[in-house]
């Protein structure tokens, strides 16, 4: 049973399209995250939701909109895709949000290629 | 944000111990030291974390300096499966509650 699962694994699309990436966790965690890993391999946090409420929103263009229908799901919708959006997107979850002890569990990533 | 400094890359031989260093001279008293690793084409994976005392788990050991300004992740017997990028991250209170990844150390394990 995969703890944090993302779909699709690969996404190839044209500039200007709108696309979504889905994430689900079966760990019973309260907090979920989206991270972006660019071509230089830097991992940066984009968003975090705790109990379906947005708590972290790093300086991400508003073309990116996370949606959390319930605690187990955090989807990422991207409007008007640009070439610079090409990256690997990772979903993650943790039991609590701000605990210094907290471990994050990551999905295997969605490789987005914008042509 | 509290910063960490790690070597860009290290090499090891299979079945030998590996010591991955991390400097964090600006660590605050409430910051935990977390280690994650990222195997090729996978998401990051939690390895170990600690505050002051040395820690052991089934994956690795974490040795923390007495002044907490540095730490070392120890893989007791490296295997080819341990080849990955290892990230040392400080996680604490205040503005440092987020898990912020740096460049990490790329570990190569030679057969």
Question: Would you write up a description of this structure?
Answer:
The complex is a heterodimer of chains A (115) and B (111). Chain A is mainly beta and 115 residues long. Helices cover 0% and strands 55% of the residues of chain A. In chain A, the strands form two sheets. In chain A, strands 2, 4, 5, 6, 9, 10 and 11 form a seven-stranded mixed β-sheet that branches. In chain A, strands 1-3-8-7 form a four-stranded antiparallel β-sheet, with no helix packed on it. In chain A, strand 4 and strand 5 form a beta hairpin. Chain A is globular, with a radius of gyration of 13 Å. In chain B, strands 1-9-8-3-4 form a five-stranded mixed β-sheet, with no helix packed on it. The N and C termini of chain B lie far apart (38 Å). In chain B, 36% of the residues are buried. In chain B, strand 6 and strand 7 form a beta hairpin. Chain B has 111 residues and is mostly beta strands. Helix content of chain B is 0%, strand content 45%. Chains A and B meet through strand 5 and strand 10 of A and strand 3, strand 4 and strand 8 of B.
Topology at a glance:
The complex is a heterodimer of chains A (115) and B (111).
Chain A: E1 4-7, E2 10-13, E3 19-25, E4 31-37, E5 43-50, E6 53-57, E7 64-70, E8 73-78, E9 87-94, E10 105-106, E11 110-114
Parallel strand pairs in A: 2-11
Antiparallel strand pairs in A: 1-3, 3-8, 4-5, 4-9, 5-6, 7-8, 9-10, 9-11
Chain B: E1 9-13, E2 18-23, E3 32-38, E4 45-50, E5 55-56, E6 61-64, E7 70-75, E8 84-91, E9 105-110
Parallel strand pairs in B: 1-9
Antiparallel strand pairs in B: 2-7, 3-4, 3-8, 5-6, 6-7, 8-9
Biggest β-sheet description of chain A: 7 strands, mixed
Helix and strand composition category of chain A: mainly beta
How widely separated are the two ends of chain A? 34 Å
C-alpha Rg of chain A (nearest Å): 13 Å
Q: Strand-residue fraction of chain B? A: over 45%
Whole-Å distance between the termini of chain B?
38 Å
Unreliable runs of chain A, pLDDT <50, ≥5 residues?
Answer: none
Structural class of chain B: mainly beta
Write down the overall geometry of chain B: globular
Which whole number gives the mean pLDDT of chain B? 92
The major beta sheet of chain B can be summarized as:
5 strands, mixed
Cross-sheet strand order for the largest sheet of chain B:
1-9-8-3-4
Order of helices and strands of chain B: EEEEEEEEE
Total DSSP helices of chain B: 0
- The gyration radius over C-alpha positions of chain B equals 13 Å
Question: What shape does the CA trace of chain A take?
Answer: globular
- Per DSSP E runs of 2 or more residues, the count of β-strands of chain B stands at 9
